[in-house]
Amino acid sequence: MDATSKPRVSAAEIDLAGMISASPEPTGTAAMFGRLRKLLRACGPNRHDQVLVLISACITEGVDTRGQIIGTLGHLDFKRGHVAMLLAEGTGTNPEVYRWRRDAAGTYTLLS
């Protein structure tokens, strides 16, 4: 690593709570995309890690259905199939294994 490159960061090391809150300011779609892009820049170059972090951030932002999440990350230039795959793989009820759950209505929430 040279003096100008950023250190690599794993998705596990990123503090979502410090970057996005449950009631973010300012509000609106453009502001949300600004927050997501800021978070994306902090994730490092690994696209897999970026998608995992951004899915969690979307859920925190209230973008919490499959279509909304896939569409939002698609607008951030992620492959929709990749997002769909990671969303499905991260869905379950055991917080030791999964990242989020989906209720009967199709709404995702984070597992703590």
pLDDT under 50 segments (min length 5)?
A: none
What coarse outline follows from CA principal-axis ratios? globular
Give the overall average pLDDT: 87
Tally of contiguous helical segments:
5
Characterize the biggest β-sheet.
2 strands, antiparallel
Please state the structural category: mainly alpha
Global Rg: 14 Å
Q: What percentage of amino acids are in beta strands?
A: 5-15%
Compute the separation of the termini in Å: 35 Å
The number of E-state strands comes to 2
Helix content: 40-55%
Order of helices and strands: HHHHHEE
Strand order of the largest sheet: 1-2
Tell me what the structure shows.
There is one protein chain. Helix content is 47%, strand content 5%. It is built from five helices and two strands, in the order αααααββ. The chain has a two-stranded antiparallel ribbon. A hairpin with a 5-residue loop joins β1 and β2. The model has no long low-confidence stretch (mean pLDDT 87).
